[in-house]
Amino acid sequence: MRGMWAVAAMLAGFAAQAQAPDTQEPRQPRRASTAPAVQPDPGAPNVPFIDSHVHLNDEAMQLDLMQRFGATRAVIFWGRASDNQTIAEAARRHPGLFIPFASISPERSLFRAAWNSDDPALLARLDALLATGVYKGIGEISAVHFPSPGLNETDYDPLGPMMRGILELARKHRLPVLVHIETTRMRELSVLLDAFPNVQVIWAHGGYTPLFLARRMLERHPNLTYELSARTWPIHPRAPDYTILRDGKRVWPEWLALIEAKPDRFIVGTDASHRSPASEAMKFESVQNLLRQLSPPTRDRVAQGNLTRLIEPQR
Questions:
Q1: Residue 45 lies in a domain
Q2: pLDDT in tens, 239-255
């Protein structure tokens, strides 16, 4: 675990380069927690888990990390060095390990013009990909994404034709959708979830919401799953309050209490992108750090059970 905290310090140096959102919520008063008093144990065995969030840029590195850190399977989608075709090919090479998702996300310049014009041809392209049966979900769709190093800002209406069309295809093919939508568009996301109650939506990073908004969205929308990738990092380079850790190791008791109270609504992920072995190891270690602080029944669901249910529903 020592390397994890060293990399966390390195990531902090990038914080000045990334723009933090301008809609920070005030911290809520501390309340007594009913979460189990579990302390992180870096020497404990790895907890098997399914990684819900991998931008597959380096297949060999990803396979090595999965073996080292207990990831039994991984949801994969494109990154800077991959596309839908290479994702499908990787899944064919490793069918027991990789779970491919198809994406038409607007941060890719190839698709940006179609999003700007609400071109239905792009939805037809996604429909054709899903009809192959290769892909087990849709995403990541970064409809609303604050700017980050190497990623331009996107701000497309979650109630617009493209997002509605994507959820209609998810309903047609009975697949989950992984969306990245920031809190600035949370009202629209809420309306979208109400409009498609039978579509399972995975909220990437949980929109980086504070605790009370996470609870509110989960209580209002039974078809929403809160995904914790990047929330378990000791330090997040974009904003210090994005992590759910209070000291770089221990999860805030209030967050533990919420996860324990709603054990069927959370999943874990690394947000792997394979920029360096050290940074990626930190991400995997951070997932293990969270899982070891959960009670055994909750741990099993958050680590594997909930995501398995989403990608392998009873038909």
A1: no
A2: 889 999 999 999 999 99
